[in-house]
Amino acid sequence: MRRPGIGEASQGALAGAVVGAICGLFAADIALAIIGRNAALLFSTPKLSLLCWVVSWGAGWVLGGQVGPMLGERLQSPRAELIGGGLSGLIPAALIGLWGWYMVVR
User: Could you read off the pLDDT of 46-92 as tens digits, one per residue?
Assistant: First the structure.
């Protein structure tokens, strides 16, 4: 089994970075927008959103680069590598979203 290096470029890493960056951009403010019933609240904290974007992008790249190739090799499918990378890119964004929900509800 091929063990990818930390930060090594692969299709799974790219998928994880794209999904993590896009979801991470809105993750911190999504709870505020849902509770406030106002889509404009998604852009209420631009500096925090930029920080979450960078963190989710980097974490999605690393997680997608680790999970994607292993899943693709195990299932013998390049699509599995993309799907595994994309799903692992959701992990940091989901954690930031849960943190944002906690901060809004508390």
Answer: 999 999 999 999 999 999 999 999 999 999 998 999 999 999 999 99
| Lookup: tokens for 102 | 């906690």
Which amino acid appears at position 97 of this protein? G
* 37 vs 40: CA distance, rounded Å: 9
What is the residue whose two structure tokens read 């680790």? 66
Closest alpha carbon to 60 in 91, 29, 30, 96 = 91
With beta carbons less than 8 A apart as the criterion, state whether 83 and 59 touch: no
pLDDT tens figures, 14-51: 999 999 999 999 999 999 999 999 999 999 999 999 99
Minimal CA–CA distance to 57: which of 80, 28, 90? 90
Q: What is the pTM of this model?
A: 0.89
Domain ranges of the chain: 11-105
Residue 44 CB coordination number (10 Å): 14
Q: Report the alpha-carbon angle 69-94-103, nearest 5.
A: 155
